[in-house]
Specification:
By secondary structure, the chain is α/β, with parallel strands linked by helices. Helix content is about 30%, strand content about 20%. The protein is built from four helices and twelve strands. Strands 3-2-1-6-9-11-12 form a seven-stranded mixed sheet. β7 (about 130-135) and β8 form a beta hairpin. α2 packs parallel to α3 (about 65-70). The model has no long low-confidence stretch (mean pLDDT about 90).
Length: about 190
């Protein structure tokens, strides 16, 4: 992998992290409400019964209101649990405020682990991202967990990334291992590529 590509992605991630830290609380609340509404529409339109999502970190677009809605509507949600070997385990969301602190300080669910292949039974995958471009190229945070998971699936359901409006860009640097997404959810749009 060319060093300039790695450096470009690292610089872009740092810029996005800083921009996310400065979003005012009232804007973040409005963004959360809009993203939740888009996700609800996506789930209803696709008739989703089981999906995977994630617990957002403090600077990511918030997912917990959507997760509560899914739980209240009888939709089973699998949440990722990071492993030292670079794979993801999965646990069923239980609609409690109980969370564990996983690798890298990430919030993770409590509950029994289902193993890495549990994701093969979902109807929709919702993933975090630092940015997404108009071609469906997703840039994560550089650890490769979701790229490995998506790349290992023989038949995968639609995959949507959640980002803030400014993080849907024209073009991102892409490496061979970067897995594309089906669409993106931002506060102002639900886009299928």
């Amino acid at each position: 992998m060319p060093e300039d590509l790695v450096a470009a992605k690292q610089a872009l991630r740092a810029e996005i992290r800083e921009r996310r830290r400065t979003i005012p609380a009232h804007e973040r609340d409005a963004d959360t409400a809009a993203i939740t509404e888009h996700l609800q529409h996506l789930v209803a339109a696709r008739g989703v019964k089981r999906l995977s999502c994630y617990l957002a970190t403090p600077t990511e677009p918030e997912t917990r209101p959507f997760l509560s809605w899914a739980y209240d509507n009888g939709i089973e949600v699998l949440l990722p649990v990071t492993r030292n070997d670079g794979l993801l385990d999965w646990a069923v969301a239980n609609n409690t405020d109980d969370e564990n602190v996983g690798l890298y300080g990430l919030p993770e669910p409590t509950g029994d682990l289902l193993g890495p292949i549990a994701i093969n039974s979902v109807d929709l995958i919702v993933v975090p991202a630092s940015a997404v471009d108009q071609r469906g190229v997703r840039m994560g945070w550089g650890r490769g967990y979701f790229d490995k998971t998506l790349g290992s699936m023989g038949k995968r359901p639609p995959v949507y990334a959640i980002v803030f409006d400014s993080e849907l860009v024209d073009e991102l640097p892409r490496e061979v291992h970067d897995q594309p997404v089906t669409g993106v959810v931002t506060p102002s749009a639900l886009i299928t590529f």
